[in-house]
Write a sequence for this structure.
């Protein structure tokens, strides 16, 4: 399957439709227009069946980044955000849980700092949607969506921006264990950033010779 | 048989420049076999894990996914290099990172 960039019109349609592009998967683009990421014109759908939205700075070199700062996770009530059936207290607790998962997983590959320093990534994360489906468990929700931005902590330059969601299958909302989804996202963030760093380090070595 | 099984020396000899520093101009000059070798070299570099602090990252799974996507990766390189708006110096590197992003298990 070839990878194609799609136009702004199609991207906007994808953002507006919770069912679009998800096929049999449970990954759909969340409300990238919720506003947390600011300019979303750079974001394009992920490849294959994954309908996540992603931007990676073409000039970014991840090899120097050994540290990470995880900002407090924000509950973002922007355009299109939906937190039906979830109290503010629950949202605050879940935001803390997501932040904790990110710190825990990233600590396996990066030094987790509280203040910026050279060679530090800064993660900004927002919950932009969380809908309860009436599931039996307290952590079971119908859908959850987040937006993520990764910056150079010193310069503030955007290195990565992404939007992702869980629990909006083609047949309607599926029960999703929100804490399991948070752990999965945190592990993916760790693996992706560590692999970017390793790849760019190898690139630097390859570009300059042995 | 994929180039995975060829000795690293042969792969290097096939390529006029390190695959990791591949420009669109040189990508378009490669033969199909050389393109396959270049993608393989990128995959191995991405999962070498030399900079990692731990073994939590499932590099085997990422490698398997990238290997399974190697033909798509070649197509993606063709696409970005064939479009003057995206065929910058880091076009191939960025296109490859998109596959890394989607292959994280």
């Amino acid at each position: 399957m070839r990878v194609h960039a799609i136009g702004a019109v199609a991207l906007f349609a994808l953002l507006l439709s919770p069912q679009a592009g998800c096929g049999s998967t449970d990954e759909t683009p969340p409300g990238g227009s919720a506003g947390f990421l600011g300019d979303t014109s750079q974001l394009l759908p992920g490849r294959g069946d994954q309908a996540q939205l992603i931007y990676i700075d073409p000039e970014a070199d991840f090899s120097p980044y050994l540290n990470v700062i995880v900002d407090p996770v924000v509950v973002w009530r922007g355009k299109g955000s939906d937190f039906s059936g979830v109290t503010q207290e629950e949202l605050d607790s879940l935001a803390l849980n997501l932040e904790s998962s990110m710190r825990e997983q990233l600590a396996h590959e990066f030094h987790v700092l509280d203040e910026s320093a050279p060679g530090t990534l800064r993660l900004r994360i927002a919950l932009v949607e969380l809908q309860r489906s009436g599931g039996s468990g307290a952590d079971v929700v119908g859908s959850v969506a987040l937006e993520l931005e990764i910056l150079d902590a010193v310069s503030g330059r955007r290195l990565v921006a992404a939007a992702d969601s869980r629990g909006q299958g083609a047949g309607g909302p599926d029960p999703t264990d929100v804490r399991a989804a948070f752990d999965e996202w945190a592990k993916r963030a760790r693996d992706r950033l560590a692999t970017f760093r390793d790849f760019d380090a190898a690139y630097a070595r390859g570009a300059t010779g042995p | 048989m994929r180039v995975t099984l060829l000795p690293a020396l042969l792969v290097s000899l096939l390529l006029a420049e390190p695959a990791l520093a591949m420009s669109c101009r040189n990508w378009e000059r490669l033969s199909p076999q050389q393109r396959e070798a270049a993608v393989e070299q990128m995959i191995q570099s991405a999962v070498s894990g030399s900079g990692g602090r731990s073994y939590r990252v499932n590099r085997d799974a990422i490698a398997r996914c990238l290997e399974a996507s190697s033909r798509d990766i070649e197509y993606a390189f063709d696409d970005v290099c064939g479009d003057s708006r995206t065929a910058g110096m880091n076009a191939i590197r960025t296109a490859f990172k998109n596959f890394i992003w989607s292959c994280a298990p």
